[in-house]
Amino acid sequence: MGLNLRGADAVVTGASSGIGAAVAHRLAARGCRVVLVGRDRQRLQRAADGCAGAPLCADVTEDTGFRAVAAAASRADVLVHCAGAGFAGDFAAMPPDRVAALTELDLTAPLRLTRAALPGMLQRGRGHLVFISSVAALGVPDEEVYSAAKAGLRTFAAAVDRRCARGGVSVTTVLPGAVRTPFFAGRGRAYDRRFPRMVEPEAVATAAVRAVERGRREVFVPRWLVVADRVRGAAPRLYQWLAGEFG
Ligand SMILES: NC(=O)c1ccc[n+]([C@@H]2O[C@H](COP(=O)([O-])OP(=O)(O)OC[C@H]3O[C@@H](n4cnc5c(N)ncnc54)[C@H](OP(=O)(O)O)[C@@H]3O)[C@@H](O)[C@H]2O)c1
Question: In the predicted model, is pLDDT for residue 20 greater than 90?
């Protein structure tokens, strides 16, 4: 079920940068009032100024910040879970506190925020949840924890979808490939593959917002990445071989 965005209230986490900032701008261009969430006050203010949105400076993994975002989410028609970070490197050497922090940011915080937003959406019989997962949800070597968190997000979205649909609330999972943002600096390894080619954050934002308006459950960006998902489902051994050959 698609949502008319004109006059809708949206909350976007991770909106101070990259994909989240682009989604916030796109939602505003479609007529939403947008609350932008991030931790870097200056970057957040710039992103908010660019779309006449309201900045909410908060860390979603910390108590006070979480409560502030949860309060905003409980009033929202659209909640976009975009705050996230990666880690690339040897899993056996990954610091345990980094395992916990990544899981908290990429998986637990979106689950808890959904828990905060859903009762209001179901009561009003209107709402849309957007999860920015990743093609890494299919499983990427050297990004095991990130892959698990993004797969968890995708599975959670699919599981909560039925309950949502009964109450007039829709769910979209977005699975981007490589996107040109500061994400790669944060994960500790630059993007060094020729394939798939990087896309711009605006391409992800356009696909995500279109999916909200058309009520789509899952979108891959670029779209052809869906082939990897289908091959993995139908022929897991072939997928493993192809992933080994082509990364
Ligand atoms: N770039 C890619 O290739 C790619 C591909 C697939 C999926 N994704 C996913 O897309 C999402 C956005 O990533 P991006 O590429 O746009 O990276 P980005 O430019 O680094 O943006 C990450 C955003 O998350 C926010 N954030 C990080 N920790 C936070 C915290 N504790 N509390 C609140 N906000 C926090 C950051 O805000 P502050 O810095 O202000 O805290 C920033 O706005 C992530 O979930 C990522 O996993 C990215």
Answer: yes
